[in-house]
Amino acid sequence: MTDLVYNEMLKIIRKKRLFIIAAITAVLVALFTYAQFKHVQDVQKRLGTADWRTQLQQQIIDTQNRLNSSGIDEEWRKFLQIRLQQQQYYLDHNINPSAPGAPTFMRTFVENAIDLFLPLMVMVVVADLVSSEASGGTIKLLLTRPIKRWKILLSKYIAMLLSISFIVLSLVCLSWLISGAVFGYGGWNLPLLTGFTIQGEELNTANVHLISQWKYLLMELGLAWFVAVVVGTLTFMLSVLIRSTAAVMGVMLAALISGAILANMVSSWESAKYFFMVNLRLTDYISGTAPPINGMTLGFSMSVLAVWGIAALLVAFFVFVKRDVY
Amino acid sequence: MTQTLVVEDLRKKIGRKTIIKGLSFSLKKGEVFGFLGPNGAGKTTTIRMLVGLIKPSAGRITICGYDLQRQFTKAIRHIGCIVENPELYPYLTGWENLEHFARMLPDISKERITEVVKLVGLQNRIHDRVRTYSLGMRQRLGIAQALLGKPSVLILDEPTNGLDPIGIREMREFIRFLAEKEGLSVLVSSHLLSEIQLMCDRVAILSKGSIIRIDTVDRLLKEQARVVWKVEPLEQAKKQLESETVILSAQADTLITYYEKEKLAAWNERLVQAGVKVSQMEPKLPTLEDLFIELTGGETID
């Protein structure tokens, strides 16, 4: 099995796909870093550079005043206390909240990459994993070895998992290295708010608490990896079913983009939440952004994605093992 | 074991159409077996079933004693094949391609790879990318790949397709060498009759999914041998020969009859005694082509 996976990795690497992905990521990260840098400059210009400490102090006093006033409900009070803790941390550790370091940039980047950019990169590698063997005719050589078909497909799937891990890892490394050069490499312990839940129409802040940025980032990366694997598995199935790599890409791209569009307009079509493509923004559940359809939770979205992924995997294996190869 | 590949009543149905209608044949050790048929006769489908790419609807394939359906890995271990074109990974070098396939077989040493590379004569270019290879070189690399696992049966689908005349001759000699010196059974398919005639010991003629004939090349050809007579006057000669044999064609001053070596002199004598001038008497061995057209009735694919 190790030999088979080695073969598949060799092919992926010699096709230079991973290299291309790393290059695209590097270029985009540099671009976003510059955009972010401009934005920070702009904010600083508006606020006055030397002023941010007094500004923060003012905010803290405001919050304290609101806490002292009577007639605010218990839940809101708790939330404000947590806010206060966060602001105090910024002040104590001399962190300008509007000029974040590389980890903050990474976090924003991962949050924005999870539903389109990351799946796109995964597609570039996975789309031709099986279909290129079929269109190139090499499938005939692969399947006439003394190895069972399911083992050959499994080796390809493992190679896919390795590649996806590499893509997520390179995303992390590149965004840290490149943005750090501009924003500084620190900021791992920055406290962030999490634990929001949405109940009905309202944001429930009952469970909100602070966690350090590195923990937060780790959670988000885990979710990003999970999303990438599910998208990869779906692409993998299409790659088994369709001979043409371009067609695989087209179908997958259409699905992903329709997801982005649907998310903006389906709030009243409830059963749309069972589509995999409206469930890709898992990181929103951590940061507390409202989901596109009522009643969607982190657990729900992950289950929907898992079901799609497992179904795709079953179809891929079943078809690959049974199919006549012409 | 003298029979390396045994096929019994092989059938393939696609939808409601039966494409392969019950083929039975077997290959002996050290022989080159030809698979001859027009395009669409079912050669490639049959070959794909032999190497496990297509599942037969019925019938049995046994390779070196192992059933291909039930003991796939053990059976396929003894087969080396090129199905249609030798398609390898163009972005890898020839050597990397061989290594890639060697990793999929049990216990193939570096020495074995070097050995097959030498055998097909690719030493000089083996570390170049396959993208830069000519078709002939790809064909050799394909054969090298097929030979890696020391198979007992080599299956080559149209091995001379797209090669130049020198390449075709080399390929032919190489296939003969593999069968005679290395003791492999080689199954070669082709629609080029002259190829099969020069290369094979036995031939199966395939038409519309069934085998019409299986026999040695010599015997098939002998059966169809003719004599071409140039005689004058024609009518006189015709009358004389008709009582001895069958006249297949009579045109201008030319008569064509079957060829029977022992009786030829007697027939000639009879003609001469009857006052016929025999100016030419030419025994003609037919090409497999004539035979093929006669057997298949000059079929086209439908």
TrEMBL record, chain A:
PANTHER family: BACITRACIN TRANSPORT PERMEASE PROTEIN BCRB, INTEGRAL MEMBRANE PROTEIN-RELATED. GO terms for cellular component: plasma membrane. Pfam families: ABC2_membrane_2. It comes from the Bacteria. This is ABC transporter permease. The lineage of its organism: Bacteria, Bacillati, Bacillota, Bacilli, Bacillales.
From TrEMBL, chain B:
Belongs to the ABC transporter superfamily. PROSITE patterns: ABC_TRANSPORTER_1, ABC_TRANSPORTER_2. CDD domains: ABC_BcrA_bacitracin_resist (cd03268). The keyword Ribonucleoprotein does not apply. GO terms for molecular function: ATP binding. It comes from Anoxybacteroides rupiense. InterPro entries: AAA+_ATPase, ABC_transporter-like_ATP-bd, ABC_transporter-like_CS, P-loop_NTPase. Residues 5-233 form the ABC transporter domain. Keywords: ATP-binding, Nucleotide-binding, Transport. SUPFAM superfamilies: P-loop containing nucleoside triphosphate hydrolases. It holds the Pfam family ABC_tran. This is ABC transporter ATP-binding protein. The keyword Thylakoid does not apply.
